[in-house]
Amino acid sequence: MCGIAGIFDTRGQQDYPRELMQRMNDIQSHRGPDESGYHFEPGVAFAHRRLSIIDLSTGQQPLFNEDGSVVVVFNGEIYNYQELIPELTALGHRFHTRSDTEVIVHAWESWGEACVQRFRGMFAFALWDRNRQTFFMARDRMGVKPMYYAILRDGTLVFGSELKVLMQHPDLDRTMDPLAVEEYFALGYVAEPRTIFKGARKLDPGFTLTIRRGEPIPQPKPYWDVRFTLDHNLNLADATAELKERLKESVRLRMIAEVPLGAFLSGGVDSSAVVATMAGLSDEPVNTCSIAFDDPAFNESEFAQMVADRYKTNHRVETVQSDDFDLIDTLAALYDEPYADSSAIPTYRVCQLARKHVTVALSGDGGDENMGGYRRYRFHMMEEKMRGGLPYGLRRPLFGFLGSVYPKADWAPRVFRAKTTFQALARDSVQAYFHSVSILRDDMRRQLFSQRFRQELGGYNALEVFRRHAANAQTDDPLALIQYLDIKTYLVGDINTKVDRASMAHSLEVREPLMDHPLVEWLASLPSSLKIKGQEGKYVFKKSMEPMLPRDVLYRPKMGFAVPLSRWFRGPLKERVREALLGETLRATGLFNEAYLRHLVDAHQSGARDYSSAIWTTLMFEAFLRNCQTTAQPAPLVRSA
Question: Quick check: pTM over 0.85?
Answer without folding.
Answer: yes
